[in-house]
Prior knowledge:
There is one protein chain. By secondary structure, the chain is an alpha+beta fold. It has five helices and six strands; from the N terminus they run αβαββαβββαα. β4 (77-78) and β5 form a beta hairpin.
Amino acid sequence: AQRDPSLRKSGVGNVFIKNLDTSIDNKSLYDTFSVFGIILSCKVAHDERNQSKGYGFDHFETQDASDQAIQKVIGMLLNDKKVYVGRFMTRKERMETLGHPATRFTNSYVKNFGDAILSDEEFQQLFEPYGK
């Protein structure tokens, strides 16, 4: 596998794979994705005990190869687990696209109204000043 950091950091051809079965190693990941094009690098992430973290990366030589891999493998079963395959995004790109994880959830749980019984309209009027 070739490792050119500038090429890898450009994002061209980089694929992120998650929900991998723990039995999938670098070789089996490479074998699964090599049918789509030349792979420059391939890696399954591991923890300090060398156990799979359930995700990995493939870096294809061309964007076309990575696009084809994403289209063909997303949702496919690998070792009885449905995998997600998508374009690799840096943390900064994820934050810009998806927002900070803490800002994505907007549900509120309200309790301890005592004996008050509020209609949906009254409840909405009570909390509407804080957002929709």
